[in-house]
Fold this protein.
Amino acid sequence: MAKLISFDIDGTLEVGEPPGGITMELVRQVQDLGYLIGSCSDRTVSEQQRIWLDHGIKVEFTVLKHRLNDVKDQFPADKYYHIGDTEADRRASLQAGFDFRPVDDAVVQWLNGLSPQ
Ligand SMILES: [Mg+2]
């Protein structure tokens, strides 16, 4: 069954402001493993779409931070993760029923060859 990962942008992705620890290459690797991926950020949806487009990554969803629950409604999956860098990310995850992974923990885990679990 599917697993889904939502990425915050600023402070989480390397292309954020400020840059975070998740490279776009890492995002591609995770997508290649079969995860459904997308972003959930305070950036507007069109800004989020432009970022992914600019990097040639086709994502399943782009939502505002308080709309993470919409993603769950739209995509049936076994596991839902949100990766972010702030308390707001943790709160949004809890409210939407996602497992929150602090960005630095996620990077360390992946660099050690482990997928999120
Ligand atoms: Mg952030």
User: Anything to note?
Assistant: The pocket of magnesium ion is lined by residues 8, 10-12, 84-86 (CB under 6 Å). The CA atoms of residues 106 and 112 lie 10 Å apart. The chain has five helices and five strands.
